[in-house]
Every structure is written in structure tokens, then in C-alpha cells.
Amino acid sequence: MRVFSGLQPSGNVHIGNYLGAIKQWVGLQRGNDALYCIVDVHAITIPQDPKELRRATLETAKTYLAAGVDPQKSTIFIQSHVPAHAELGWILSTLTPLGELERMTQFKEKRSKRDAVYAGLLNYPTLMAADILLYQTELVPVGDDQLQHIELTRSLAERFNNRFGKTFIIPQARVNKTTARIMSLAHPGDKMSKSDPNDKTRINLLDPEDVIRAKIKSAVTDSGNEIVYGPTAKPAISNLINIFAGVMGKPVEWITRESKELTYSEFKNNLADAVVQELIPFQQRFNDLKEKDVLSVLQAGAQKAAELASSTLKDVKKKIGFVL
Ligand code: TYM
């Protein structure tokens, strides 16, 4: 199957991104034809610091590689290296009713947090649709905050196909049930987020061991003292169980069975051990990567992606009446 996904290079890649998205990507490499993109064109929909964007873009590429995305199996590239994304994004924006964009939850959330909002932020989902549709993608592995964007992508593809003839494959989202929405360690009602000003709400993939342990130790828990799963009654413990299950690659039931006799603090110690065991080797691989090797992976990836993208874009242009 053709698989496509991406992550915004906005710093602070956290365990929610890792468990909700990147770990799924690694698993999907076998037997599929996957493209994993660093979506810098999306990252500028809110004002950026140029130096920081460059740093975060390369750091995100290193994160993919250190997490196990293998350039021999998957195509890894930077979105701005393939101009077809912006071109198809523009074309799709001319087919998207304004009201549909204004209704997007992520747009409304981001808008409510800022004084100035630019047109690019509203158009964010049409660019994301272009990312996916350019590659005739069948499967899009994401966390559940992206489902609404993928729904819009599907309806844009259907609309285009109906109006201009069959052009795009209709993609499907793929979420991992237990890790589709990892919550904040401090406010289990909110999603763990890169942009939360309180760093203690998330475990960043590059946090040192003592910081990881301290953050887990200070994570809020629910009333009572039993390790039982129930996202409504026990949202905080259930979130920690989801993280544990995701890191171990085990079902929730396994974690709760193994942890039945434990106190909250013993459970948190075990969880911290598991997270440290997953992230410290990741960090070693991350630190061993050389910028020039990363750049050469990205260059080869962009070349391959551009070839794939150009055939869809050519077809689209012909169908809508552009002179080729
Ligand atoms: P971004 O950069 O916000 O997040 C990258 C991936 O991480 C997932 N994620 C989470 N999963 C579980 N729990 C969380 N707390 C959590 N926070 C984030 C996201 O769902 C996502 O899968 N618009 C996208 C990037 C994008 C994209 C695409 C994705 C651009 N084009 C095409 C797929 C296909 C975004 O902002 O992700």
C-alpha cells in the first residue's frame, strides 16, 4: 500500500507524536511503499523564526531516522523540496468552500490563541490534502487530531474525481487505538502538545533521563490508588497506561494485569523505566547522525518524491484545462 504521513518541524517532538504517529510509521515500512515528509511549508502557517525553522527541520529528519524510519525502505523528504505540494495545494484551495475551512477544529483552536491570523493558516488543510493526494496515498497513519483533515482530504478527492474524472485514490486514516491521543501529563483533559508553554506537560523525545523520570513522577494521578483503566473515570492513570502500552507494544490489558498490585508510585517507576529504555537508545542514535548524511538522505528522498508527484500533478493540470 502507498503510505504517506508527516510532522511539522516546530521543535519539542514529544512522546505523543512518537506513539501516535512515528512508531506506526516504522511498523508500516514493511511490505508498503511509504513516504514520510517534514512539512516545513505547513510550519510557516504561524510566524516562524527562520533559524529555528531550519534547526527544527533537520532535527525532525534526524528524529525520523533515529526512530527507525529506514531510508532504504521509505522515502524521507522535506516538503518545500517538492514544489508540487504548493502547486496542488493552490489548485485544491480553489475547490474548497471557505466555510469548510472555517469549521476545522484545529483552525479554530489556533485562531483563538493568536491576535493575527494569516490566510495560510486557513488554507492549511488544502495543503495537507495535496500532500496526501499527490502520491495516490491509500493509508495515512496519524494521531486522532488529524482525522478531520483527512476527512476533508477524502471529500476533496471525491469532489475532484466527480467533476474532472477519476484522478485521485481516496485515502484512509489509520490510528492506533491506545495511542491516538496521548494527553498532557499535567492536564489529562488536554492533548499533549508541542506548543504548550509548560514543558512538564510532555515528555520530549530528547529529554535527559532525569528529566523524563521527574516529569513522570510529577504527572497528575486520579483519586483512589488502584491501577485500573477507564478514560472517563480515571483519565490521568489511563493516559499513563496508554503511554506504557504504546512504549511496550503491549495491549492495555497486559499493562493493567501486570500493574494490579502496584501503588501509583511503583507504577510510575516502572513506566519511567520503560520510557527511558525506549528513549535513551533513540537519543544515542540521534546524536550519532551527521548532518551531511541526513542532508543526502533528504536530497535522494526529494528526488524520488518529486518524480512520483509530477505524474499526478501533470494529470491534474491537464484535467483542469491548463496548457501543458
Ligand atoms: P503534527 O506535527 O501536529 O503532529 C505529527 C503527528 O503526531 C500526532 N500527534 C499525536 N498523536 C497522539 N497524541 C498526541 N498528543 C499527538 N499530538 C500529535 C499527529 O496526529 C500527527 O500524526 N497536519 C499534521 C502534519 C501533516 C500531515 C500531512 C500528516 C501535514 N501534511 C499529511 C499526515 C498527512 C500535523 O500538524 O501534525
Automatic annotation (TrEMBL):
| Keyword line | Aminoacyl-tRNA synthetase, ATP-binding, Cytoplasm, Ligase, Nucleotide-binding, Protein biosynthesis
Annotated residues that bind ATP are located at Q8, P9, S10, G16, N17, G143, D144, D145, I182, K191, M192, S193, K194, S195
| EC number from the UniProt entry | 6.1.1.2
Ranges spanned by the short sequence motif 'HIGH' region, renumbered to the chain: 9-17
The protein's matches in CDD domains, at most eight in alphabetical order, are given as: TrpRS_core (cd00806)
Which SUPFAM superfamilies does the entry mention?
Nucleotidylyl transferase
Catalysed reaction, written as an equation: tRNA(Trp) + L-tryptophan + ATP = L-tryptophyl-tRNA(Trp) + AMP + diphosphate + H(+)
- Where located? Cytoplasm
The principal localisation class reads: cytoplasm
An example of a GO molecular function for this protein is: ATP binding
Q: Which Pfam families match?
A: tRNA-synt_1b
Q: How does it assemble?
A: Homodimer.
PANTHER family xrefs:
TRYPTOPHAN--TRNA LIGASE, MITOCHONDRIAL (PTHR43766:SF1)
Q: Which family does it belong to?
A: Belongs to the class-I aminoacyl-tRNA synthetase family.
What protein name is recorded for this chain?
Tryptophan--tRNA ligase
